[in-house]
Amino acid sequence: MKFSKYNFLKISKLQDNLETIDLLEEANFVKKVSTGSYVYLHLMQKIVNKINNLVREKLNNANCLEIALTQLQSAKLWKETSRYAVYGDEMFHFKDRKSNDMILAGTNEEQITKIASEMLKSYKDMNVTFYNISNKFRDELRCYNGLERCKEFIMMDAYSFHDTLDNLKIEYANIRNAYIEIFETLGLKYEIKASDSGEIGGSLSEEFIINGIEVGHIFQLEDKYSKALNAKYVDADNSSKYMQMGCYGIGISRLIQVMADSFRDKNFLNWGKFSSYDIGIVIADVSNEVQRKFAEKIYDTLKKKNYDVYLDDREMKLGAKLFEIDTIGTCHKIIVGKSAADEILEIKKETWCKISLQDLITDF
Question: CATH top-level class for 3-12+269-363?
Answer without folding.
Answer: alpha beta
